[in-house]
Amino acid sequence: MSPVRSKVFVVAAMLGLIALPVAQWWGDRAAGRPAAWVQLFERPPTAAHLRAVEQAWQEAAARNAYLRGLAAAPGLAWLRSAEGPVLTVRGSVNQPEGSWLFYRPDVRLLSQRPPAGSVERAANATVHWRDQLAARGVRLIVVVAPNKAAIQRPGSFAVEEVWKSPELRRYQEALTANRVEFVDLHAAFAAAPVDLRRQAPLYLPRDTHWSKDGLALAAAAIVERLGWPQRADVYRGREVSVPHVGDLERWLGSAASSRQEMVWKVTDEQGNPPSAQSGGAEVLLLGDSFCRIFEDGAVVGGGLKSQLAWRLGRPVGQLRQDGGGATLVRQDLVRRPEWLQGLKVVVWEFAERDLTSPETEWAQVVLPR
Amino acid sequence: MVFASTLFLGYFLPVVLGVYYLLPAAGRWRNRWLLVASYVFYGWWDPLLLPLLFGLTLWSFGFAWLLGRSDFTEGRRKTLLVLGVSGTLVALFFGKYFGFACENYDWLAARLGWDPAPATRWALPLGISFFTFHAISTLVDVHRRIAKPMESWADYACYLAFFPQLIAGPILRFGPIAPAFAARTHAWSQVASGLGLFALGLAKKVLIANTLAPVADLAFNARQLDAGLAWFGLLAYAMQLYYDFSGYSDMAVGLGRMFGFEFPRNFNAPYLAESVTDFWRRWHLSLSAFLRDYLYIPLGGNRHGLARTAANLLVVMLLGGLWHGAQWTYVVWGLWHGLLLVSERWLGGRAWYASFPRFFRVMCTFGLILIGWVFFRAPTLGAAFAYLRALVDFVPAGAAPAQWLGAELFTAPHVATVGVALGLAWSRRRAHDWSMQLTGRRALLCGVLLLLSLGVLGAHKANPFLYFQF
């Protein structure tokens, strides 16, 4: 290549690189933020500070309009589609209407060896929590919401075989050994009628959570464990179709559209969803987003709380922390001791992923005296 | 700081290159600027590591200066060489192998009822395997009178710390490269060629190796594997390792060219090798040459009969394996290659499949290399043997873990990337040579690859190179 062309190539390439900090500076200035490089001189250059600066710069780069423009180049988005938090699996003969979405960390909890030690921490925290409640005369029932990927498998998406992880088995064994009450939803889903398992998905195709039928099976299993008489005459239940945008659909970001989902909607005589106030509920449901689904937003009265209330014929209280079923929701109860008045049973639900996720904290929570 | 980061590409490289060419070519200003930049580059990981690099520079510079004196007897020079090299190896041992030695001592002590080793452990100082080898190369080359010691301390410090090769090579032999630190030429065509090679290396890393990294990670940490999944994961790892390391080497060589240096090539289409002996003439060439010249030949090489040659090969490959990491898996990987090399030597320098057609020779060699990569990648020996068992488990695993692993691995981008990677690895094109004859079209392609890589980097959070851990 001639010296002139070489010079043009070098200068053009360098300008392409220099455009990165210039665009960064421009973006920071427009947003009223201090320039990224200023952070470097804010503290002595220790390894920790340099890593923090590097991370801040990388995060700033992800906001950089110049880089985002480059990343939108044809082919790159396709290349990156194999990553990201949502795994798309194509539809099947039984479910031809579209692809199924799965939360990738949930899928990896199934396919990957988990870190050691997390199950033991979970079991210890559970036994401690049961003891805390028992000292106040409150019964604890533990419910682990199955990982969607353990129930709905790629291929047909029919629930042919429910996969229970060795970690969940170990956790269940530890609970049994310590006489902690446990509702085995994996077994309940596996024991569902064949027609239901093959034809009706127990989880929503484009959401992390269970469907109307999955919810019904879970509520029935919990009520059976509770052993109280069922009263179907207090609340009314009817099947309705509601628009719903799945959380995974929303996560994908592009053109999230709602689908019609069937919901078993529960109401009292006035047409209001069943609800319990603090200090007046005998049953309290502690849980995460598995308790939010159909109990928040466009439709209220179709979630786990309402399904339990419908079967038991009495209102059920609820404390909920999305993504915090393992610890945050128990801490929430500590902050609201009024819920403990008159309380007989705590149904504690958390997601299966909490058992093995390294991020999950399994703190021992102490109830106030 | 890694090359494949917005920090390096957007800030460090333009500043260092721009200031470098603004400084006068006469005198040593440019070398001093490169030295400052290299210390900033290294200190960016952890400023507390700089005294180690500085101390080793003083140590080897001092011994090289003594070895270069003409009034010393050969016996005294040999003593100085042994002292200088030993001191360097002590730094390497404590930096890299002390923790491994303690772990093995503790294992033994637990069985013999001894007290465990003190709990003192520290992180591996980045690049120590490379800059200690550079120091050893200096001492040996000066002792052998292949090169004279550098007169300027700053030039020598620059050689040892030169940022393009500091963290992951290629390993620069002191003798051939030393003159370039005294005087070198600069030309726009050379800078353009270096930039082109750098862009190719960056694309190898960002577009191919990074895409395949999750495939290999998922396969090697899977709960359940069958032969299909295991082979795909292993192929992906073989490609990831090659494109990651050769990409880094291309970037290092390209950066060297931009600053007027010509580093040796580190790879020469290794997966086209027709025997394991041939593979080691194509893979990590700078390490092979270093081990050959500074270990194998001093041990006697092939000059003392077949048995001694076999022993020398095994020792060299075992130490080569251990050089990659303080783990038994690397030792077994080295032993595997040592045994393969010995078997070929036993057959008169030919592989047992040497009479097959070329395609089968290449495939047989590739298969043997792949088996070695299982030990290279697996976290423990137990995991490596389990993976090898999965490679021959031809009954499809039907349970959910394997089904989901398949759903994640066999995606169109992964399959296509493995296909492209294999196609390029088995083609006759070499990035090193391709960039030497840069044309307008090639430059345009390099520019596009540079921008695409930059776009991908903006979306990634971490980008470690595999060879940094060595």
List keywords for this structure.
heterodimer; A: 369 residues; alpha/beta; 5-stranded parallel β-sheet; two-stranded antiparallel sheet; 41% helix; elongated; B: 470 residues; mainly alpha; 2 domains; 70% helix; globular
Protein architecture, described:
The complex is a heterodimer of chains A (369) and B (470). Chain A contains 15 helices and 9 strands. Chain A has helices spanning 3-31, 47-63, 65-71, 76-80, 104-111, 118-134, 148-151, 166-177, 185-190, 194-199, 212-226, 247-252, 304-312, 328-335, 353-356, and strands spanning 86-89, 100-103, 139-145, 181-183, 236-244, 259-267, 283-287, 317-320, 345-351. In chain A, strands 4-3-9-7-8 form a 5-stranded parallel β-sheet, with helices on both faces. A two-stranded antiparallel ribbon of chain A has the order 1-2. In chain A, helix 6 (118-134) runs parallel beside helix 8 and helix 11 (212-226) crosses helix 13. Chain B has 2 domains: 26-185, no CATH class; 190-469, no CATH class. Chain B has helices at 6-22, 29-43, 50-67, 74-112, 128-143, 153-161, 163-166, 174-182, 188-220, 227-258, 276-279, 285-296, 305-324, 328-346, 358-377, 381-391, 400-409, 412-425, 431-436, 440-459. In chain B, 47% of the residues are buried. The interface between A and B is large, with 59 and 64 residues.
Give a topology summary:
The complex is a heterodimer of chains A (369) and B (470).
Chain A lengths: L2 H29 L15 H17 L1 H7 L4 H5 L5 E4 L10 E4 H8 L6 H17 L4 E7 L2 H4 L14 H12 L3 E3 L1 H6 L3 H6 L12 H15 L9 E9 L2 H6 L6 E9 L15 E5 L16 H9 L4 E4 L7 H8 L9 E7 L1 H4 L13
Parallel strand pairs in A: 3-4, 3-9, 7-8, 7-9
Antiparallel strand pairs in A: 1-2, 5-6
Helix pairs in contact in A: 6-8, 11-13
Chain B lengths: L5 H17 L6 H15 L6 H18 L6 H39 L15 H16 L9 H9 L1 H4 L7 H9 L5 H33 L6 H32 L17 H4 L5 H12 L8 H20 L3 H19 L11 H20 L3 H11 L8 H10 L2 H14 L5 H6 L3 H20 L11
Helix pairs in contact in B: 1-2, 2-6, 3-4, 3-5, 3-6, 4-5, 6-8, 9-10, 9-18, 9-20, 10-15, 10-16, 10-18, 12-13, 13-14, 14-15, 15-16
